[in-house]
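Work Package 3 committed the consortium to producing structural models of liganded targets before the mid-term review. Because experimental data for this complex are still outstanding, the team generated a predictive model from sequence and the ligand definition alone, so that downstream docking and mutagenesis planning could proceed in parallel. The input record is reproduced below exactly as it was submitted to the modelling pipeline, together with the SMILES string for manganese (II) ion.
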Amino acid sequence: MQPFRPNEPAYAGVGVTFCRVPLVLDADGLAGADVAILGAPFDDGVSNRPGARFGPRAIRAADDLGWPPKRPHMDLGIDPFASLKVVDCGDIDAAPADLATSHERLRAAVAGILAAGAMPLVLGGDHSLSFPTLQALAAAHGSDGYAVIHFDTHTDTGADVLGVANSHGTPFYRGVTEGVLDGSHIFQIGLRGAWPGPTEFDWMRKHGFRWRTMDECVDRGLDEVIYEAIDWANSTAPRVYLTIDVDVLDPAYAPGTGTPEPGGFTTRELLHAIRKIARGVDLCAMDVVEVAPPYDVADITALAANRIVLETISAIALRRGGQRPRPERSEI
Ligand SMILES: [Mn+2]
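The resulting structure, written out as tokens with the ligand in place, is given here.
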């Protein structure tokens, strides 16, 4: 299915898939796909400001340069769309006010993409979506068959948030307690602020979690932490799930999110880090979550998320060696 006319102007047409890649709404369309974009438009798991249900559409619409997609990466010297087969599976059928049902539908959709041999790339939606993703990954690879690199302000390891167990603040707690995530297989980067507290950190220590706070990233330098995470991931499991809560960015760079926390990364720092990770490990799943367009300004946050996705798939294309890289350098 291809609902676009060739060379249609960026502002025209019926709406966009991610970079206008083909829309795939059945399992047959996944044949041969390397990456499958999937929207998870629900935010029933948020503890503060809602709005992330509008994230998938905003991330897709943040950058639309027409069809067919071409995105030559100036520094990596590769166009991901020339090397990889990238499709957009649209959004899961989210159930308003019924988070458990939305989770089950996301789990099934992610499982279908994994079964087809493609990498699910989920556009959130709130961070509770990591729990069904962990379920699907454990079913496909075993609970110790993958590692997690997790960028976030918050650890999302609460037993509950304000008494609610199925929340965007609990997916990695639930992952461990429900047997789909090995606590010693997750590495968290960028933590700051006042949540969680000592109780949750003690629980994380007990289960083997690794984390590097924002202060540690500043003191040691982000590159050193990123190389540490890559080396750790490659010695821990054969594949990696990369999950990016956009609130790891400073609110100056990502105002459109539900639980902003000052003191975060710049967009440039995060894109640079993601590029290294996606080149350095074998990604089996990825998501970018908590983009809440009602609080966004001039699409800053949606555009950052769009570029997080593009940076990831560009680095995957380079890792898989589908083209001869030709970085653009002046050579004088
Ligand atoms: Mn989060």
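Reviewers should note the following from the model. The first strand starts at residue 35 and ends at 40. These observations will guide the Year 2 experiments.
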